[in-house]
Amino acid sequence: SQACSRDQREFKLLQAIQTLPQDNQDALRMRYIENRPSKEIAQELGKSDVAVRVMLSRSLNKLRDVLEGDSQFAQ
């Protein structure tokens, strides 16, 4: 039961991530999966470090909003 619930939450998270623009998805992957610094991400995406940090923050806020709106995710 717990494994099924975790799988459902992961699926909802992946769906929410896919609603973001590709640059945002790439930045999230590089930062939180590959553990790369924002300066390195900025170079790869051709953006400033500040722009990448703002993008990451806004992306996380959007994911939080989407997932909080899904009552099943909170369970």
The number of distinct β-strands equals 0
| Shape, per Cα inertia axes | elongated
Low-confidence stretches: none
Biggest β-sheet: count, sense, barrel? none
The chain-level mean pLDDT equals 89
- H/I helix tally: 5
CA-atom Rg in angstroms: 14 Å
Helix proportion? over 70%
User: What separation lies between the terminal Cα atoms?
Assistant: 12 Å
What is the H-and-E element order? Answer: HHHHH
What's the SSE blueprint?
Elements: H1 2-18, H2 22-33, H3 38-45, H4 49-68, H5 71-74
In a few lines, what is going on in this structure?
The protein is 81% helix and 0% strand.
Task: Tell me about this structure.
- The protein is mostly helical and 75 residues long.
- It is 81% helix and 0% strand.
- The protein contains five helices and no strands.
- Helix 2 (22-33) crosses helix 4 and helix 3 (38-45) crosses helix 4 (49-68).
- The chain starts with a helix and ends with a helix.
- The mean pLDDT is 89.
Features:
single chain, 75 residues, mainly alpha, 5 helices, 81% helix, 0% strand
